[in-house]
Amino acid sequence: RLLTTLDKKVEHVALGVNLNLFGPRPAPQPAAEPRRPIILYVGRLSQEKDLPVLCEAFQLLNQGGAYQLHIVGDGPLRPQIERFVRSTAHTVYTGIIPYGERLAAIYATADVLALPSRNETFGLTILEALASGIPAVAIKQGGPLDLLPAQVGALAAPGDPVDFAEKLLQVLHDKDLAQHCRGYVAEHFSWDKTFLKLLAIYDNLQACDTRGSAPCPCPYRPE
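and the corresponding structure tokens:
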């Protein structure tokens, strides 16, 4: 997030998401066997990401073998994640995937993003998922509170794998959520709107400095 002080006021400028890179892709051709919906995690494999919550939630959710879990990322907990994948059916660990087309394609083939961390100050992966046309489940704490309204996902209790599994199931069964995701991000978190607001703040500061007067409130407000 970018914060600019104006006469003891703070203007909040949210990060944006690359709508040209992240977007829905054509649906795959029907397979001979029913496709298992994909739960996707993208991020650092570290303690603060609360990955045990996701792993336990997936085991609870997938007792009938109906879902897949795909994990993308790297970090100090990689050995534990690799052991989990080896011992748990319908799980895939892809390692780290650089920012770019391949990562965007992985988002677009998933059915829901899972972000179990209670320590997210923002949650850019949520915006990347929503831009790709998939809803998200995150934690009811920190950054996700500002990013994830009910029409595009769900928020679970911190550190509660049972509630996280229930929220994943809720989102996976609600087929209407996906149709709202892309439009929501385009309206509120496009880079165009982010830069327009930031440039308006800079222009205002420069104008007030030239006049030698106190800064005025930022003139730009998104529609």
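(Above: one complete record from the training split.) Helices lie at 51-61, 78-87, 101-109, 124-131, 144-147, 161-173, 178-188, 191-211.
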